[in-house]
Design a protein that fits this description.
By secondary structure, this protein is mainly β. Helix content is 6%, strand content 27%. It has one domain: Ubiquitin-like (UB roll) (Roll). The structure holds FE2/S2 (inorganic) cluster (FES). The site of FE2/S2 (inorganic) cluster (FES) has 12 residues, from loops.
């Protein structure tokens, strides 16, 4: 169940992205954090506690919202605009 429920920008253009291998859609003007939490209940799992995280400050200060692209690039979800085609991974990869 999503953590956020969209109440604004419902009619903005859709932006296609991939979240953990599943095709998803955000809206023009979304940050990664908004786009992800409109689809899921967490943006990542803590590498320390194993607990789900959803960001904290929402303004680029706390470092709690790092997400990873399939390419390996790490981005701060609260301050990164969603771009069409992003392939976001919220779950750690398992060793083969
Ligand atoms: S939520 Fe704090 S840096 Fe993004």
């Amino acid at each position: 169940m999503p953590l956020l429920h969209r109440i604004a920008r419902k009619r903005h253009a859709t932006i296609a992205f991939t979240l953990d291998g599943e095709p998803r859609q955000g809206r023009a003007g979304d940050t990664l954090l908004t786009a992800i939490l409109s689809q899921a209940n967490a943006i990542r799992v803590s590498e320390f506690s194993g607990q789900p995280r959803a960001g904290f400050c929402q303004m680029g200060a706390c470092q709690d919202c790092w997400v990873t692209l399939a390419s390996g690039e790490r981005l701060r979800a609260c301050s990164t605009p969603l771009v069409a085609g992003m392939n976001i991974v919220t779950r750690p990869r398992r060793a083969p």
